[in-house]
Amino acid sequence: MENLIRRYGRGLTGIFVLLVGFWLLMLVILPNFAMFEQSFRPYLPVTEIGGPRDVYSLNNYAKFFDAPVEWSLFGITLMVPVHVLSFLQTIFYSALCTVIALILSYPLAFYLAKIASPQSLPTLLLLLFIPLWVSEALRAFAWYVILTFNGPLNQLLMWLGLIDQAIRWQQGVLTNFDAIVIVMVYCYVLFMLLPIYTSIQSLDTNQIEAAEDLGAPWWRTHLRVVIPHAKPGIASGCVMVFMLSAGSLLVPTVVGSTRANWFPQTIYTWFNDSQDWQTGAAYSMIFLLLCIVFVILMLRLFRVSLSDIAK
């Protein structure tokens, strides 16, 4: 705060604080508080709202554990509530998207930060930013066309002789979520790349050269020098990609198969199709709470704090 006052003065700093406070209060705190309150109320006809049946309970949250279905895990068949299964699959494949994005982003971020020449760097960054000029909806529909049964991807693979017949990518080659993972990694990989690039760019190149001069192999240099310095950027990118993937509704709706139920689709069904806003609010609060817990665990795993990410 003192740095802001010193840089912008008390008047302008006060305006900044008021705008941020207004945004947090009106667009974050109050809507979530209203949803939290609605999650405990029953779904009733309009004429019965405020009546004797309109009482607070945990019935909406209990629906999360209804309707068990069979689920095979490592050859063991378990009975798992269908919505719990949808949530677990969403968390798992969102984490998978995050890991894939990290594997793709780290080498490229290091190349851009420490290897690419200053003359070519603006052009490379521009090429990376071009996909962001197109809306996520158009990118998702473009991938829908690419992944169709008679789409260009199957035609190219058959022309190269890599496959004998077309593959139904949207039905899944390995799992029911293959297409969703592919498109989400494409849509959100830059949210992983840019924080890592920023962190590595702030690393003094002399530290890397010193490690190499002392005989450290390239993998040890990254493990002991680059990655510890880039941990805040890695954690920030992982949090963003995971939350964007877990909360995505458009991509699973466009490219997902009928057997791949993303948890936000379940929430959308309660809100839009069933018009049961109370149950939808309860599912939203469950999703928000468990995602926050997952993010906190990831921060503990990387041993970074929110203040480190905000730098």
Written overview of the protein:
The chain is mainly alpha-helical and 311 residues long. The chain has a single domain (68-310), classed as Orthogonal Bundle (MetI-like fold). 68% of the residues lie in helices and 4% in strands. It contains 13 helices and two strands; from the N terminus they run H-H-E-E-H-H-H-H-H-H-H-H-H-H-H. It has helices spanning 2-38, 59-62, 82-115, 121-129, 136-146, 152-159, 178-201, 205-213, 218-246, 250-255, 263-273, 277-302, 306-310; strands at residues 68-73, 76-81. Strands 1-2 form a two-stranded antiparallel sheet. Strand 1 (68-73) and strand 2 (76-81) form a beta hairpin. Helix 3 packs across helix 9. The two termini are 14 Å apart.
CATH class: Mainly Alpha
Low-confidence stretches: none
SS field, number of helical segments: 13
The total beta strand count reads 2
Residue share in helices? Answer: 55-70%
Q: Please name the fourth-level CATH homologous superfamily.
A: MetI-like
Rg, alpha carbons: 24 Å
- As laid out across the biggest beta sheet, the strand order is 1-2
Structural class, from helix and strand content? mainly alpha
Domain tally: 1
